[in-house]
Amino acid sequence: MHKESKKNMKILGISGSPRRGKTTELLVKEVLKAANCETEFISLAGKKIAPCNACLACVADNICKTNDDMAWLRDKLLTADAYVFGAPNYFSTLNSLTHCFLERLCQFRHRSGSALAGKFAAIVSVGGIEPEIPAKVIEAMLPYYQIKLVGTVTAQGAASCFTCGHGEHCSVGAVSILLGPGQKITEETIPDLSRQPEKIQEAQLLGKKIEACLLANTSGTLETV
After folding, report:
1. What is the pLDDT of residue 8?
2. E-strand spans in the chain?
3. Sign of dihedral through CA atoms 26, 190, 129, 160?
4. What DSSP character marks residue 185?
5. What angle, rounded to 10 degrees, do the helices at 197-219 and 23-34 form?
6. Phi-psi map region of 46: left, alpha, beta (phi>0 left; psi -120 to 50 alpha)
7. What pLDDT score does 212 carry?
8. Where are the domains of the chain?
9. What is the pLDDT of residue 6?
10. Lowest-pLDDT range of 8-22, 44-58, 158-172
11. What pLDDT, on the 0 to 100 scale, is given for residue 225?
């Protein structure tokens, strides 16, 4: 029974970072890899996702009328049983691309809408400084959509200051803040997920936890997980 249930369970991983192949994306994939069920990964990098403009056109049928990439994401969100939402810290808050994406989930909640109710979510939260901040914002938004939080993993990512070409000489950039004034950028000083094995392990445990929640929900024993 469990084998068949696992086949039918699906976890959708979303990286809200505009930078492909970086810490947010890598850590979301670690969570997905650990879950023994169907998974899908989507990067929002390069996607066109406008903020919610409060037009209320979705009130009648719970379908957003803004014509952008959220249209094809809609079915993927509906058919998934759980999510892994990954996002970076930009300027001490959740980055705008991820925030726009989460705002647009509003289309599912009108007139006591429950299309996402009871689905599970894990959060991957990344930042060069204060990596926990995106998770706090996402966690505050999930109850609006009746999505259940399973857990969070945070990790340090490399701010774009490390690769902009001026990081070593910029007195107000992340390199100076993290390493101190006048420090050289080297392979060892650039934050990298491969040097955070404990975070990779946390992500894998989180993937197992989502799987356990889905199985318990299927068998009616969620309260014991």
Report:
1. 81
2. 10-15, 38-43, 82-90, 93-94, 120-127, 148-156
3. negative
4. P
5. 40
6. left
7. 96
8. 2-157+192-220, 161-191
9. 58
10. 158-172
11. 42
Average pLDDT (183-189) is 90
Asked if 42 and 12 count as a contact pair (C-beta separation under 8 A), the reply is yes
CB proximity list for 78: less than 8 A, separation 6 or greater: 115, 116
**Given this structure, which CATH class describes domain 2-157+192-220?**
alpha beta
Structure tokens at 109: 């909640």
What does pTM read for this prediction?
0.92
Q: What are the distances in angstroms from CA 206 to CA 103, 124, 149, 152, 209?
A: 25, 10, 11, 7, 5
What per-residue confidence (pLDDT) applies to 118?
Answer: 95
* 125 close to 133: Cβ distance less than 8 angstroms: yes
Of 150, 140, 163, 142, give the one whose Cα is nearest residue 203: 150
40 in Cβ contact with 76 (< 8 Å)? yes
How many angstroms separate the first and last alpha carbons of the chain? 18
**What average pLDDT does the chain have?**
92
